[in-house]
């Protein structure tokens, strides 16, 4: 079953490095929007994982950025842009287990090097654009 | 097969740190202190046993729809974690037992 919306539902959130307290706000709001549209539990779960991992990556690696979501007929699009250091080697960053997270972040249980692979696994379309010293943009699409 | 959370709590003697709907079904547990690993591999109906006590565990539990978080070795959630769990209706349990003992007892209860 494809979700229908009369006009796109959108939202934007600001994300800041080190702001672990507000982590998850964007994915929580997004989940409740999807639930109100009776999107399948599976798609809600996949959207939650992808959005939260992307939020965390800005909070851990990305200096500052924004998450924007748009729900339209049959699909959810999430764009996460940051002005962090960028990613030198995308293939390496996509490998499960690769992480540059500092020790104190690892003590919190982040830094398993599984976030980007999780985002890829849970999205129907996924794209990374990154420029070293300028920032990173993730585009995630989940069919709903 | 599975048991309701209320029965699991009674049989394993967990302390309820943050309460909620105890009629959720438990069919196993996932053990990990790595949050992205839990997002990748935990399943609905699995308790999550972890040493992590900071607020991000609440978001992980909500997203994955886990029945409850279990803190071993007598750990307590940080105050900010407990507050967030109340808000998001996430159940947090605590046990004086080690992760090994909790998992073993749960295994016997569910599969024994
Ligand atoms: N937004 C970003 N800006 C700069 N570097 C990034 C960004 N996102 C990811 N990276 C780089 O890619 C690596 C792998 O990212 P990934 O999300 O897979 O793992 P992690 O964040 O290190 O750990 P986990 O997600 O398991 O907590 C990171 O350690 C970091 O070096
Ligand atoms: Mg990550």
In words, what does this structure look like?
- Chain A has one domain (9-143): Histidine kinase-like ATPase, C-terminal domain (Heat Shock Protein 90), CATH 3.30.565.
- The model of chain A has no long low-confidence stretch (mean pLDDT 97).
- Chain A is an alpha+beta fold.
- In chain A, a hairpin with a 2-residue loop joins β2 (64-72) and β3.
- In chain A, α1 (25-36) packs antiparallel against α2 (41-61).
- Chain A has helices at 25-36, 41-61, 90-93, 103-107, 115-122; strands at residues 9-16, 64-72, 75-82, 125-131, 135-143.
- Chain B is of the alpha/beta class and 112 residues long.
- Chain B has a single domain (3-111), classed as 3-Layer(aba) Sandwich (Udp-n-acetylmuramoylalanyl-d-glutamate--2,6- Diaminopimelate Ligase, Chain: A, domain 1), CATH 3.40.1390.
- Chain B contains five helices and seven strands, in the order βαβββαβαβαβα.
- Chain B has helices at 5-12, 35-41, 56-64, 79-88, 99-111; strands spanning 3-4, 15-18, 25-26, 28-31, 46-49, 69-71, 92-94.
- In chain B, the strands form two sheets. In chain B, strands 2-7-6-5-4 form a five-stranded mixed β-sheet, with helices on both faces.
- In chain B, α2 links the parallel β4 (28-31) and β5.
- In chain B, α3 runs parallel beside α4.
- The radius of gyration of chain B is 12 Å and the shape is globular.
- The interface between A and B is medium-sized, with 24 and 22 residues.
- Adenosine-5'-triphosphate binds next to α2 and α5 of chain A.
């Amino acid at each position: 079953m494809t979700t229908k919306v009369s006009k796109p539902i959108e939202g934007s959130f600001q994300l800041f490095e080190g702001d672990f307290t507000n982590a998850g706000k964007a994915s929580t709001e997004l989940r409740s929007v999807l639930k109100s549209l009776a999107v399948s539990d599976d798609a809600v779960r996949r959207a939650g994982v992808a959005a939260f991992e992307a939020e965390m990556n800005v909070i851990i690696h990305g200096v500052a950025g924004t998450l924007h979501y748009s729900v339209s007929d049959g699909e959810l699009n999430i764009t996460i842009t940051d002005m962090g250091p960028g990613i030198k080697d995308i293939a390496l960053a996509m490998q499960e287990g690769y992480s540059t997270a500092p020790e104190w972040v690892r003590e919190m249980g982040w830094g398993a090097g599984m976030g980007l692979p999780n985002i890829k696994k849970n999205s129907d379309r996924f794209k990374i654009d990154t420029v070293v010293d300028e920032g990173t943009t993730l585009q995630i699409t989940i069919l709903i | 097969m599975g048991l309701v959370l209320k029965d699991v709590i009674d049989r394993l003697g967990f302390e309820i740190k943050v309460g909620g709907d105890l009629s959720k079904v438990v069919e196993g547990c996932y053990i990990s202190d790595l949050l992205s690993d839990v997002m990748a591999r935990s399943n609905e109906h699995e308790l999550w046993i972890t040493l992590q006590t900071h607020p991000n565990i609440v978001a992980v539990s909500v997203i994955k729809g886990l029945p409850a978080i279990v803190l071993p070795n007598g750990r307590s959630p940080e105050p900010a974690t407990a507050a967030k769990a109340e808000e998001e209706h996430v159940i947090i349990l605590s046990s004086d037992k080690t992760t090994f003992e909790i998992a073993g007892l749960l295994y016997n209860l569910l599969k024994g």
